Amino acid sequence: MDKSMDGTNHSMVSEFVFLGLSNSWEIQLVLFVFSSMFYVASMMGNSLVVLTVAWDFHLHSPMYFLLANLSFIDLCISSVISPKMINDIFRIRKVISFGGCIAQIFFIHVIGGVEMVLLIVMAFDRYVAICKPLHYLTVMSQKMCIVLLGASWIIGLIHSVTQLAFAMKLPFCGPNVLDSFYCDLPELLKLACVDTYKLEFMVTANNGFVSVGSFFILIISYIFILITVWQHSSSGSSKALSTLSTHIMVVILFFGPCIFIYTWPQPTSHKYVAVFDVVLTPFLNSVIYTFRNKDMKMALRRICSQLFVYRRISEMIKVL
Ligand SMILES: *[C@@H]1O[C@H](CO)[C@@H](O)[C@H](O)[C@H]1NC(C)=O
Q1: Distance 291 CA to ligand 1 centre (A)
Q2: SS3 for 244-277, per residue?
Q3: For a disulfide at 160, which of 86, 110, 248, 267, Cβ 3.0-4.6 Å?
Q4: Pocket residues for ligand 1 (CB within 6 Å)?
């Protein structure tokens, strides 16, 4: 395609237009109601996880710190995409500035990368706890947790910046319509007016292979851990099994849509999977952590009863 077909030089794209999910008014209404509901619910659920872990000292262990970090990340990822999507649903022209689009891609990949590494760190944490229980406290020390967390943020940043560095050099001169409701690389690259075959391959390799690879590493490690649990079945093993099952569910919820989006060749179906990933996954994660975990439920109960006691005391003070 010619860069300046009309002979002028002001043909650089300064904004992108989203096609959104549907033009039907009824579907838009349903989408609006459901995504607003799940967005608010996932903000509340994930904040609850972060605050509960911070407040309750029974939960001050590496596993819960990592869980709280994951919830914090879920809070971030839904806030990068959902509010703009909800705000756009009823708009005829859904626009995003060039800078806004790049910012969305940047944060999606930083946060996605961090989440991926964190899930691996959490599997490592369970591996040490279950297969090397005597060394748990020395291996997963406070220092180790901070190093692993720092590493996951650095890996996320490198993952995001390297892809964007290539994408930002591309000329965007003509078409600016994205068949989606948020900006991401696979769709954006198609709009560049140069041949992006190599870059698309790199993006697929970077995201697709990395997510398929980490998914299999995670599943294999969890199978290994499960086998260890079954071999040494004792009183603690049912608790270990329930913890492991929550971790495995979260891994599948995160990687399922991710792998689909970056490896499935039919881009039109990506956005329907993405809406699931953006709206539902963060909410389900917080539900899985809070309601499938005994310690978490107990901590919530302790916090509730403490709040109740405070209220009673303040009522009594008012009466006096
Ligand atoms: C994340 O983990 C670190 C290290 O264990 C912990 O100090 C921090 O409070 C956690 N962050 C959140 C948001 O829970």
Answers
A1: 21
A2: HHHHHHHHHHHHHHHHHHHHCCCHHHHHHHHHHH
A3: 110
A4: 50, 53, 65, 68-69, 72, 145-146, 149
Quick one: DSSP state of residue 172? -
Residue nearest ligand 1's atom 13 by CA:
69
Q: Which residue, by CA, sits nearest to atom 6 of ligand 1?
A: 65
Tokens of 92: 């005829």
Q: Would you mind telling me the total number of residues written for the chain in this entry? A: 320
Residue indicated by tokens 């297969």? 131
For residue 21, what are the contacts with CB-CB under 8 A and spacing of at least 6?
Answer: 27, 28, 31, 89, 181, 271, 272, 275
- Whether residue 52 contacts residue 291, with contact meaning beta carbons closer than 8 Å, is answered with no
- What amino acid occupies position 296? M
Provide the phi-psi class of 7: left if phi over 0, else alpha when psi is between -120 and 50, else beta: left
pLDDT in tens, the chain (320 residues): 444 444 333 357 888 888 888 888 888 899 899 999 999 999 999 999 999 999 888 888 898 999 999 999 999 988 998 999 899 888 888 899 988 999 999 999 999 899 999 999 999 998 998 888 899 989 999 999 999 999 999 999 999 998 888 888 888 887 888 888 888 888 888 888 888 888 888 888 888 888 888 899 999 999 988 888 888 776 667 778 888 888 888 888 888 888 888 777 776 777 788 888 888 888 888 888 887 778 888 888 888 888 888 888 888 887 77
Going by their DSSP bridges, the two strands 15-18 and 94-97 should be labelled as antiparallel
Using the Cα atoms of residue 198, residue 203, residue 208 and residue 209 in order, give the sign of their dihedral.
positive
Calculate how far, in angstroms, residue 74's C-alpha sits from the geometric centre of ligand 1. Answer: 14
